[in-house]
Amino acid sequence: MKVAILGVGLIGGSIGLAARTRVGAEVCGYDPDARVRSRALALGALDSEADDLASAVADAEVVFAAAPVGALAQTVKLALQAAPARCVVTDVGSTKRLLADAASDERFIGGHPLAGAETAGVENARADLFDGAAWYLTPAKGSTSGVLYERLYSLLRGFGARPVAIEAGAHDRLMAYVSHLPHVLANLLVTQTSGLLGEPSERMPMVGPSFRDATRVAGANTAIWTDIYMSNSDALVAGIDELLVRLQEVRGWLDSGDAQAIGEWNERARAAREALLGAGLTGGAEGELVRELRTSVPNRPGVIAEIALALGDCGVNILDLVLSPSQDNRQGTVALWVAADHLERASAAITGLGFPVVQA
């Protein structure tokens, strides 16, 4: 398999290492900084480098756009213009609304690995960065090619990741709450707390683990995070508005001395955290008993996306899938493997789309 990587930083470099060492892919990389390309070659993240984007994707079967958020939409657009007809193009950005135009091309499948590190740059890339990590995919109903979805899905599984299908708008709302809003709160906490000090250089004499944990991401890379905040501003503003309402509610309980309300609120938060983290925010877990089910579907664009998104909506994680087209290529069989305790839920979701289901 030939893989092209556009932007060879921490994520792009880690994709290159995983592709070369874990699935035996041939990897070509492009980065506008020639020094970055040279380091990637020296570190083994690439087999070869290209002097321009078009050359990198010319004969690729899978393209990963790993450019900064501000350059991502243009990078994907150029990749789709230059990539072969049966090449799947994906990205690694944390906001999908920027790429809405690309979704009309059956070759494009938005992606976002929930993996990273405190340090940036290809010199910090690791082949195991995606081990056990959820990797969101945002196929488009009615357009995404099922064959290309299967190719990308299988490749990501080869990296050690757990691909999870989600609708693009739902992805951005989720990221606003679980990633972008926590960064906003961390920034606010440190700036508010710094106001307690008389001199800017004065350090707090003692800081507990709660403050350290809550502010670990404060002041994250400004160039990257400014782009992220602005690219997902609508969802982030909605999250901030909802948070303000909830803060006012808590303020009211405190002001009125309503200890019972505070206690019940704290208990609800504890239970909610256990439920969210226990499900990994995606549903399903590795190491569970796995069951297979099969369904027959017509051969039309977007049908695999419909199934994947329906399962994602009801919290079912596809652990593996295989497509088997019929001899006349008018329909095909989709074999899916899911956690055993998700089997009935998965069957109901697929049946709800009008497709027959057989539990193998």
H/E element order: EHEHEHEHEEEHEHHHHHEHEEHE
Mean pLDDT: 88
Strand content: 15-25%
Our count of domains comes out at 3
The side-by-side strand order for the widest beta sheet comes to: 3-2-1-4-5-6-7-8
Task: Please state the overall shape, judged from the principal axes of the Cα atoms.
Answer: globular
CATH architecture of the largest domain: 3-Layer(aba) Sandwich
Q: Tell me the major beta sheet.
A: 8 strands, mixed
Assigned CATH superfamily of the largest domain? NAD(P)-binding Rossmann-like Domain
The SS-based structural class is: alpha/beta
Question: Low-confidence segments, ≥5 residues, pLDDT <50?
Answer: 282-287
Q: What's the level 1 CATH class of the largest domain?
A: Alpha Beta
Q: Which value, in Å, is the CA radius of gyration?
A: 22 Å
* Number of separate strands: 12
Counting DSSP H or I runs of 4 or more residues, the number of helices is 12
Question: Percentage of helical residues?
Answer: 40-55%
Report the end-to-end length measured between terminal Cα atoms: 31 Å
General description of the model:
It is a single chain. The protein has 360 residues and is an alpha/beta fold. The chain has twelve helices and twelve strands. It has three domains: 165 residues, NAD(P)-binding Rossmann-like Domain (Rossmann fold, 3-Layer(aba) Sandwich), CATH 3.40.50.720; 85 residues, 6-phosphogluconate dehydrogenase C-terminal like domain (6-phosphogluconate dehydrogenase C-terminal fold); 70 residues, 2-Layer Sandwich (Alpha-Beta Plaits). The strands form two sheets. An eight-stranded mixed sheet has the order 3-2-1-4-5-6-7-8, with helices on both faces. Strands 10-11-9-12 form a four-stranded antiparallel sheet. Helix 2 links the parallel strand 2 and strand 3. Helix 6 packs across helix 9. The longest helix has 27 residues. The protein is globular, with a radius of gyration of 22 Å. The relative contact order is 0.10. About 2% of the residues have low confidence.
